[in-house]
Amino acid sequence: EVQLQASGGGLVQPGGSLRLSCTASGLSLERYTMTWFRQSPGKEREGVSSIKSDRDTYYAENIKGRLTISRDNAKNTVYLHMNSLKPEDTAVYYCAADPNYSRTRANEYAYWGQGTLVTVSS
Fold this sequence. Notes:
0% of the residues lie in helices and 48% in strands. By secondary structure, it is mostly beta strands.
């Protein structure tokens, strides 16, 4: 059984930082396209960052420069480091995995984690 366990969310002040983790069981993350999505109330789920099997990375333009995605193969874990957080970054963050290198659409991803809530507020 494949499971993705997302963690690391919490309450942070504007300008602060967080590191989200997504640990997998039942698959090897290094062989998958791993993407972090986020969803705020009333908004569609949006992709914020991806890391491919060859370690190629992608960042959404509206948050680029404040994120770093990385992968630890030994721990079978993908991380999302977020800096200079803003109130508009408040959302539930999900990690998703798919064996297709070119996968982009959220509704086509094969596996999902349960989500971790990030709240940016003073």
